[in-house]
Amino acid sequence: MSAIVDVFAARSDNFGYLVHDPSTGRTASVDAPETAPIVAALEKRGWTLTELLITHHHTDHVEAIADLKARYGCRVIGPKGEADKIEGLDELVGDGDRVEVGEIVFDVYDTPGHTLGHIVFHDAQGGHLFSADALFSLGVGRMFEGTPGPMWAGLKKLRSLPDDTLVYCGHEYTESNARFALSIDPDNPDLQRRAAEVTALRQEGKFTIPFRLGEDKRANPFLRADAPELARHYGLEGKSAADVFAAIRRGKDNF
């Protein structure tokens, strides 16, 4: 049986995710942004937390680790590259590793940039990617610690995943991401369609996630840094995709 994913709001604009294996009853929370919403979601579903999958060290993704570990005795799995920044990790993982939650198998990918040790979890069988702050709908995380080359390389790994992959990101930033994307890629019909869909969803008070990776490949300028039209927009014809990616990221930072 495939994984059941429960999506809920946490903090001011975080998403919380529970991933449940119906065959074994094991349940993981992807990141630990806030105790109360996670506990409420577990109780509503009648599930017990057995694993915490941590993507990076920022407070809004790790704050509830100690509370949840004390309450449920769950196993905490997180990035080996940030072991010195995250309290309470039981198992360290990185690129190429696999994590099992019952019969659900997650492939781990390194996605440095937002933080140097940022990782993501991909359930290939179920077609779910938990990208946290590495990849957003129509955007990517701010580059707090990394540099453009490795961040672009990590995103290319994610871009190579199947188009029908459902992406679950860390924050509800899609509306603002759409406004920026349209400012640099206004003639992109896929972006226009997604932006209109996002506006309608937000007007109805609905989440903009999960989103299909294939749609984002065509609409998200950060996944299209090797597109000639974006190089032309920034006057970077002939430059590397990493250079164009850096220009797009600077543009968003100052938008």
TrEMBL record:
* Binding residues for Zn(2+) 1: 56, 58, 114, 133
Domain Metallo-beta-lactamase per the UniProt entry, residue ranges: 13-171
Q: Cofactor stoichiometry and binding?
A: Binds 2 Zn(2+) ions per subunit.
The top EC class, named as a word, is hydrolase
Task: Provide the reaction this enzyme catalyses.
Answer: an S-(2-hydroxyacyl)glutathione + H2O = a 2-hydroxy carboxylate + glutathione + H(+)
Asked whether the UniProt record includes Magnesium among its keywords, one would answer no
The Swiss-Prot or TrEMBL record lists the needed cofactor(s) as: Zn(2+)
Q: Which SMART domains match?
A: Lactamase_B
Q: How does it assemble?
A: Monomer.
Q: What is this protein called?
A: Hydroxyacylglutathione hydrolase
Species of provenance: Devosia albogilva
